[in-house]
Design a protein that fits this description.
The complex is a heterodimer.
Chain A: E1 3-6, E2 11-14, E3 19-21, E4 23-26, E5 32-38, E6 44-50, E7 56-59, E8 62-65, E9 75-77, E10 86-93, E11 103-105, E12 109-114
Parallel strand pairs in A: 2-12
Antiparallel strand pairs in A: 1-4, 3-9, 5-6, 5-10, 7-8, 8-9, 10-11, 10-12
Chain B: E1 4-7, E2 10-13, E3 19-25, E4 31-37, E5 43-50, E6 53-57, E7 64-70, E8 73-78, E9 87-94, E10 104-105, E11 109-113
Parallel strand pairs in B: 2-11
Antiparallel strand pairs in B: 1-3, 3-8, 4-5, 4-9, 5-6, 7-8, 9-10, 9-11
The chains are: A mainly beta, B mainly beta.
C-alpha cells in the first residue's frame, strides 16, 4: 500500500543554517504531496503542497519539489530561524491509487533551532 | 473566523467512561475526517465522512463511533475508554472539488484516560 518515509529526528540546527528534511513515498497512483507543520501544543498547518511531478511548493521560505523519478519530496529552507522549531510531517493523498482521499503521513521530524 | 473547531481542547477521564468530541467546520467542505496522533506523534486516519456518509473506517475498535449530523459537523463518541485511547484526536475537512485533496485541521483534542 501507499506509504511515506521521512528522516528520523530530532534535527538540531543553529539559526541561519540550511535545512533539509528528506521524504520519500510509495504510491500506486498519482498522489498529491504535502508538508504539514505542527508547532508545540498546536494543531497541524499546511506548509506547502505539490500536485504533480516537477511542481515546486513554497511558503515562508520553505520549498519542496515533487520528484517522480526518485519518488521524493524533500523539504528545504536556506536559513532557519528559532521560530521554525516544530514537528514537520510529509504526507500524501492518493485518490487515484485507491486510497480515497485520506492523508498518509510520515512519522514526523522534530526540528530544533538554537539561537 | 475559526475554520475547523473542536471541543473540548482537553479531556481527562477515567477508564470505562464514555465521552464525545465534537468537530465543526465553516469552510463549506463536504468531507470530514478523524485522525489519531499517538504519544510518538504518529498520525493515522480513523474515519472519513463524505456528505454525511461513512467512506473510510480504518480498523478502529467498535467502541469508537463517529456521527455526522450534517456536512459541517463530525462527532466522535468513545465507549468504555481504555488507557490506550489516550492520544490527541484531530478533526480535518476537505472539499472533493479540490483535486489536490488538501485537508484543513482543527486544533486537536488531547484525551487522557487515567
Amino acid at each position: 500500500g501507499d506509504s511515506v518515509t521521512q528522516m528520523e529526528g530530532p534535527v538540531t540546527l543553529s539559526e541561519e543554517a540550511f535545512l533539509t528534511i528528506n521524504c520519500t513515498y510509495t504510491a500506486t497512483g498519482y498522489p498529491s504531496l504535502f508538508w504539514y507543520v505542527q508547532y508545540p501544543g498546536e494543531g497541524l498547518q499546511l506548509l506547502l503542497k505539490a500536485t504533480k511531478a516537477d511542481d515546486k511548493g513554497s511558503n515562508k521560505g520553505f520549498e519542496a519539489t515533487y520528484r517522480k523519478e526518485t519518488t521524493s519530496f524533500h523539504l528545504e529552507k536556506g536559513s532557519v530561524q528559532v521560530s521554525d522549531s516544530a514537528v514537520y510531517f510529509c504526507a500524501l493523498s492518493d485518490p487515484w491509487g485507491g486510497a480515497t482521499n485520506k492523508l498518509i503521513f510520515g512519522t514526523g521530524t522534530l526540528l530544533a533551532v538554537q539561537p | 473566523d475559526t475554520a475547523v473547531s473542536q471541543t473540548p481542547k482537553y479531556l481527562v477521564t477515567q477508564m470505562g467512561n464514555d465521552k464525545s468530541i465534537k468537530c465543526e467546520q465553516n469552510l463549506g467542505h463536504d468531507t470530514m475526517y478523524w485522525y489519531k496522533q499517538d504519544s510518538k506523534k504518529f498520525l493515522k486516519i480513523m474515519f472519513s465522512y463524505n456528505n454525511k456518509e461513512l467512506i473510510i473506517n480504518e480498523t478502529v475498535p467498535n467502541r469508537f463511533s463517529p456521527k455526522s449530523p450534517d456536512k459541517a459537523h463530525l462527532n466522535l463518541h468513545i465507549n468504555s475508554l481504555e488507557l490506550g485511547d489516550s492520544a490527541v484526536y484531530f478533526c480535518a475537512s476537505s472539499a472533493t472539488r479540490d483535486l489536490s485533496y488538501e485537508q484543513y485541521f482543527g486544533p486537536g483534542t488531547r484525551l487522557t484516560v487515567t
